[in-house]
Every structure is written in C-alpha cells, then in structure tokens.
Amino acid sequence: QSTWDLHLSFSSSHHGIMMSNGSDYYRHSDDYITDTGTGTGTSDVDNDVDSIVVTEGHASCIGLDLDHFPEILYDHKDEITRIDFTFNLITDLIPLTEFDVLEELILDNNWITDDVIGDLPPLPQLHTL
Questions:
Q1: What is the Cα–Cα distance from 46 to 102, expressed in whole angstroms?
Q2: What is the Cα–Cα distance from 34 to 14, expressed in whole angstroms?
C-alpha cells in the first residue's frame, strides 16, 4: 500500500489534478491526460513559452508544463529576482546557477525530489524557496 499526494489547480487559464507517490505519478489537466509511470513526463500539448512574462524582475511560468528553464529567462537572468514555476514538470535546478540576483523561487507542484533540492546551486540572494 502506498500513499499518494493529490494536488488540485484551478485558475483562469489552467485546471488540473496531479497525484504522486514520490516515484509514480498521474496528471490530468484541461488539455491532456498522462499516465507516465515513473520518471519525467511529457505531454502532447505545446508549452506556451510565449506567455511567459518578465516584468519588474518577476517571471511568471505558472502551469505551462515546463520540464526545463526557457531561454527567455536566461535573457533576463541579471534582473530576475522572482521566478514562479508552480504547476510544471521541473526536475533539475542546476540551470539556476546563472541567476545571481534571484531572491524568490516558487516550485510548488513540480517533480522536485530531496536529491534535487540537495543539488541546489549556491544562490547568494535567495531567501524564499
């Protein structure tokens, strides 16, 4: 018998359910259903990277099913102080190495494990994770 975490998301642009027991997961959103077993999942939906907005040092990447850091973030790496990756498929934090001024990193409802957090690169300005 295993324990599953259930995450519900509802916003004007995204509705979804994600269940995880730490290694297996099931994800259902308004656009697709995925039952991927173990590892990182992909979807048949194109990630809407064009909808990422960077304003006043804040980057919003909520609910885009991203499994990587989009190039637009690197274009603004010296000014981004806050990134919100809520409801994505992020599994690696090493790309954050280049974000020296990052103060807040929101990673709710991603595929982050304790090992990944242990590999978090030094971020001298980070105060909220």
A1: 27
A2: 16
